[in-house]
């Protein structure tokens, strides 16, 4: 997946540099090779939003890129729009333009909201971000009820349930189209595993299940490929802990200037690319994501998901777990349950 996204982007860059691409010479509306796809980014001028806008502008599957933020959008949109790739860029700056930003969107990516500072948990963001997510999802229900929604705003374990409740109230909920973006956990698990197991990072795959906060992030290193016997129990524990604390590692390193933005933009672009490929009918697109689920007793859970023309095509099971992973699963369920319930309660009360 990672390599296929890089290949697509490299080829877009090559085409834009050589100016020889037929895609660049002819208007997209008349291109039969690539279906029209509008991607909207809400929170596009933020730390994640800006590099994510750049990466989506480089994605050859995007024909229309709609950038919305309550501050700073005109600059970001003007800047990104000068890049000579086919996606047509439009910026929307004020709340009264949110409808236009969303209309016709196939995918809406939401990195709007405040990030952590050192000493905070993701749940500490709930009070501010819950309201932001609720109002943005209300607009999605109105202006693009059929869009796929990629939720990045934290706490994902609660913001996804909030979105589901907003859509249910509006009568537009489609569980196949709502995704909590947990790709950064997979990106981290792959990077850390490759370094420890001394295997090429581009070949590595590691499923990460559960949720997206602390111990609710459960990497399944027993299923990592390429498999290795080189890692003992203590090393697997250390890798698990580093993956669970990856966000905090960045928050502390940034020392008050926010949380992961560049690696998150990359992860968000990987996941959106997978959704676009699914929509376009590319077979066997599988990514981990926090979705409505029956894999455990909880109503939402992150696991491998097969993506297709309607969003989720199949939520895949957990596969065989090691004893250590079974314990991790037992331990995460109560915290994840309460974060999910907190989101549902908030959306029902407001
Ligand atoms: N799912 C994941 O793996 C990750 C999630 N995050 C989360 O992503 C969120 C954004 O992080 P950053 O980009 O670093 O924050 P940031 O503060 O740099 O950017 C957030 C942007 O959202 C905008 N915004 C605020 N209210 C809005 C509204 N009502 N409508 C549209 N835009 C609005 C702000 O103007 C700002 O430009 C945070 O909640 C953070 O915790 C961050 C990293 C990883
Ligand atoms: O840690 C944070 O606050 C941001 C985040 O979700 C991550 O980097 O995984």
TrEMBL record:
The protein's assembly and partners: Homodimer.
The reaction(s) this protein catalyses? (S)-malate + NAD(+) = oxaloacetate + NADH + H(+)
Chain sites annotated for binding NAD(+): 43-49, 69, 129, 152-154, 264
Which of the seven top EC classes does this enzyme belong to?
Answer: oxidoreductase
What's this protein's family per the entry? Answer: Belongs to the LDH/MDH superfamily. MDH type 1 family.
**Which residues are annotated as active site?**
212
**Entries under NCBIfam families matching the protein:** MDH_euk_gproteo
Task: Write out the entry's keywords from A to Z.
Answer: NAD, Oxidoreductase, Tricarboxylic acid cycle
Matching entries from InterPro entries are given as: L-lactate/malate_DH, Lactate/malate_DH_C, Lactate/malate_DH_N, Lactate_DH/Glyco_Ohase_4_C, Malate_DH_AS, Malate_DH_type1, NAD(P)-bd_dom_sf
Cellular component terms (Gene Ontology): mitochondrion
Q: What are the coiled-coil residue ranges? A: none
Where in the numbering of this chain does the Lactate/malate dehydrogenase N-terminal domain appear?
Answer: 38-180
Gene3D superfamilies, per database record: Lactate dehydrogenase/glycoside hydrolase, family 4, C-terminal, NAD(P)-binding Rossmann-like Domain
**Domain Lactate/malate dehydrogenase C-terminal: from-to ranges:** 182-346
Q: Name one Pfam family in it.
A: Ldh_1_N
Q: Which GO terms describe its molecular function?
A: L-malate dehydrogenase (NAD+) activity
Tell me where the signal peptide lies: none
Binding of substrate occurs at 116, 122, 154, 188
Q: A GO BP term, please?
A: tricarboxylic acid cycle
Question: What is the protein name stated in its UniProt record?
Answer: Malate dehydrogenase
